Amino acid sequence: MTLVSPSSGTSSRWPEVFGVFLQLGLTAFGGPAAHIGYFRQIFVIRRAWLNEDAFAELVTLCQFLPGPASSQMGFVIGLIRAGPAGAVAAWLGFTLPAALLMAAFATGVARLGGPLIAGLEHGLALVATAVVAQAVLAMARTLAPDPRRIGIALAAILIVTVLSPVAGQGVAIAVGLLAGIWLCRPTDVTGPDALSPDVSRAA
Q1: Residue 61 has pLDDT above 80, yes or no
Q2: pTM of the model as a whole
Q3: Which one of 14, 63, 69, 74 is least enclosed by Cβ atoms within 10 Å?
Q4: CA distance 21 to 64
């Protein structure tokens, strides 16, 4: 995937980017794993801002970096679509509502407490588990489409399950890197065509 600098004409798109990410910020529940599933539905399937290959590579890059992958992905998608103004618009639209809602919820929990709040938290945890599972299954069809990639994914699950969280993540990343070089080397080089046609023309 080649991320190109948007042309000057794309800077006017930042209100569109802000609107889309604000809607996601208010409705995309479930945490980063579920957010990535929502991103694929919106930006690959519905709006075609990225194609499947570019989206998969962006997921890989942002999952490798420390920090919340969904926030990083939103920032980059906004940058691709509308330049620096789009990146800022995406971050504000997606992150600010969640921060405000979390602060309000934490304040309410601290003041109320009791069995009602405990039951509410437990119910939300169960729903979040289902949302994340659905997102993971949806992305698995794209990111692990053949036996080799399925094998790498299962090996990573086994590693992070058996080892401690910190060590498991590092070992899983290293094993995935080596296995990908050995088993999944592409026969061609993905270029700007991995992006949507609109973004490719900005090159």
Answers
A1: yes
A2: 0.70
A3: 63
A4: 23
